Records
---
Amino acid sequence: MKAFVILLFFISTSISFYSQSKTSVAILPFNYSNCSSADAYVISEAVVSSFVKAKRFAIVDRTKMNEVNKEKNLQKTEDFIDAVYLADQGKSLGAQYLISGVISSVKKSSENKQRTKSDGTIENYVNYLCSISFSCKVIEVETGQITNSESFDVIGGQPFLGGKGATDTETAFKDCMSSLDVSLEKWIGRNFPVLISLVEIQESNRKGDATKLLIAGGSELGLQKLERLKVVEITFVNVNGKAIERRKEIGEVRITEVEDSNFSVCNVTSGGDLISQKVKSGTKLSLITIK
């Protein structure tokens, strides 16, 4: 019984060591102009939903952000309020990053169009369009630095392959939001790449090159089968007295099986020889997502 307890402790400790903690993000209510409050709400919720769907973020409860939002409204401008102030407030919320945004416009319009039907006759119709423009900034709470600023401009309702396009303004708006969802997913992937630990080489070929890896990331991080990851060696280089992180790409893998919430199995698609050499020399390797 004592041996079983010790083994159970060892297993739980190992999982805890390898498991990846979620990044804590606070998403502030967006400032907006030239659009309705209802449309602004839908757009800001789309940003929240994109972070939630990624499955690797802990979203700060927005009921705890009342004081931050009050100050934000007092300082509302076309640009963002002081990032350092927001970072200070983010620390009290327990957030690692703050997302702040400004919606500059949501335009809904219609235009009279014509198209030639299959029988050669001309058909008149009304095409409805929608365009959304807004910007987001990512603020790192620890440093108060703005790490990214991105503008989003999407259009919905346009005819496709001779079709009529959107039949009303709400359909055009929904079409716009679908395009925005794709853009947000890519933006999150670029700015918040997942850093995952390499657990072990599971299989090698006759030359000793790594062909299959076990990594410490699973469904809890939103990893999916067939997803590509880069294998990197992370070192720190001293530049003018400051330690700068350097990521050197070693190879690339593709996930073949998401075992559970904590682990996945990957096939090595390139760099198997270097991966083996680094692991044998005791070098710690990590993997990052590719978006």
---
Amino acid sequence: MHGMARGLWRSNNRSLVSHRAFDMNPTTPRLLFAAITTATLVCAPATQAAGNLIRNSSFETVNGVVHDQGYLPAEFEQTGNISPGADTYSNDDSYGIQPGGFGNFTGATAQDGIRFAAGADFGSFALVEAFGQQLTTALTAGATYDFSGWIADSFRAGTTRGGFDLLLSPSTAFGDAGAVTVGSLAPTTGVGGWEYRTVSFTAPVNAATLGYLILAPRSVGSSEAYIGIDNISLTTAVPEPATWGLMGLGLLALAGASRRRR
């Protein structure tokens, strides 16, 4: 009987020693933290979209009926250096221009809803139909933002591929010395149809004074580009919920490891 008791005590004691050896190992928390950090980086997407800071982002809401060039929804302003400026296209010809007007987007439809906008760079960024919007929420200096949208080439003969430069400016004046180019939407590929584009940027230190977001068409080369754009979005980049969850699990595991060591 005593021999059996001693055997049980030795078995339990070895188990206890083994657990204590694990708990007292100073590298355990660090290894656990490294493993969880790696899982976080590998498993979790980098960002998720927050609320859109752009109003009327698909150009759908308009006032009245207009059939002409150079008109945009009320939330947007002409910011280029040539008149009549950027245009609105409507699938049903209810505002601005119908897609087939002037042969620009014959047979095309809006990417989202029934309307989209378009602007030209007449070559070498000298004459540009830029347009923009005054932001109702000031950007935070140092914060990361995501801009996205869909762009499409004009079908009109003589035009080339192009994209858009993204600027923050203190005014709507084209070429304002205080304007900052924060990113670009890569040029279209020339295959036709709508192409998705996105760019991330860090708001500059004087972001609070740059109240206008401006989209400036830019051609590839020195030829004219006339580029449609639709379904645009400006959002604050925030961590995915999965990232926060993994970080929380990691902190709990580290806390548990620390308690066992004590």
---
Amino acid sequence: MKKTGHSFYVFSSLKVALLVVIASSFYLVAAEDAGFPGQRSGEDLQAAGFESLFVGKNLAEWDFKPWHQGHFVVKDGLIDYDGLSEAKKWSENNLWTKKSYADFTFYAEWRLPRKPVMKGHPVVLYNGDFLMEQDHPKKRVTRAHLDAGDSGFYFRGDTRCQANIWSQALGSGEVNGYRTDKSMPAVTRRGCIPLKNADRPLGQWNAFEVTIKGNRMTVVLNGEKVIDAVPLPDLPARGPIALQHHHDPVQFRNLWVKELP
């Protein structure tokens, strides 16, 4: 069968387009694997005195319960949580470490893998309150924003002491339990709001480095300080660390902790 010049042109164009798609995909994968600001290698963390809580093998350091089975799953070198743990009490769905910690620095990499959808997000004011509708003072004002879910880490066995993982414009690292508690001092509530949004695009890996010393908490996200030594009144002196359950899928990898003197 004789090919026309037009057919050859179409075939060539499709071939070029396919090569562009393949090259673009390779670039995105390479960029994702090439490291990002704030990411630290296991060798670096180990040399700095960190101890592993998870490096891709098992959950030996975690208080794994029957209702976690099939939900917090180790695969491909990470912890894949589907958000569907089945404990009767909400708080029991969180996955806590077996060991308790006093002063420490915690390093973790995480991402929200779900495809983002548009969702109404509340607006947080400078004082830590939510912006409420003028005609309905008990109803929050919301703004449409891409959302891939919500999770976080809890510290010292206290769910108020959280480094929040979420999709909101405010940015991750927010200390939600203290920020929303109106009995807390103004300096605490304001200090629990991230200084900037340092999150990478939804679906990409991020790195937290959280330091708690005494009752002060600092959060560095992707190399950017987002919470600066905020005082947290009545924080327990020691307690375990948790991966938060929030009914949303989330993935974790490279979890390390260093106890401080």
---
Amino acid sequence: MRKALQPIIYALFLLIVPCSGGFVKMSLGEKINNGPPAPIEISASEKSNQDLATTLEASKAPSGPLGLTATAASEIQINLSWNPVSGALGYKVYRDGLYLMTSTAATSVPDNNLRASGRYCYQVTAVDTAGRESEKSNQVCAEGMEQVLPEKKMDAAATLSISKEMRDKGRVQIDIEFDSNKSVVKPRYHQELKRIGDIMTANPEWKMVIEGHTDNVGGKDFNMNLSARRAEAVRAYIIEHFGVSNTHLTSKGYGMSKPIASNKTVVGRQKNRRVEVAVECTVKK
């Protein structure tokens, strides 16, 4: 009986006290407190969720670097720089999608292992103290700075020597090389092409053809197309810069059909990758 009346007796000791927002419930003898509210107690499940969120935040990999730039310093060096990442212990640099090097703390590094002038693309990641690696940065690309060699002194004797070779043999080989699968005439060879332009200017009755040749690396069609593009690039440069008539200078690609050395050796293949100028009409000696 006494146990059954306990809830009723306890209810009689509670008061309903009006307040500005409604009513609050107080026990008898408790004073009204107009001070700041008591701290909110967090349940065990809520605290567990907060701890989990904190743990997940701490386990995240660092942010990827921003502001990556690439600037050519020479034919074989490109300088990279990027904005620092807070909390990063170091950075990994990738070139053309492949890992290149690791930089500890520094946010600028040189890539001076380039084989030759060409186009290279870079990305960078940040690595924190736990070894976590960020996503890759923005991609930037740059081309190695073309090295312009000092021009060779061109005298009348040199030009006459080339003219004589063309009269005697009907052709002369041009000292020019191209990057792999490229047909761009590099500035270092402009002076060499000036010889041909000068000879054609001095002999306006001559008609010549620029011949492109390759080694046997790659398919027949590929090499035929590559040799034609290179020969045409040489022809276009001579016509544009030396006023040669386009009806007096043509181009043709022969691919790997006319080797002058064995393609079984590195030296032989190098000799076969060439550009020649041939006299297309009869020249009086």
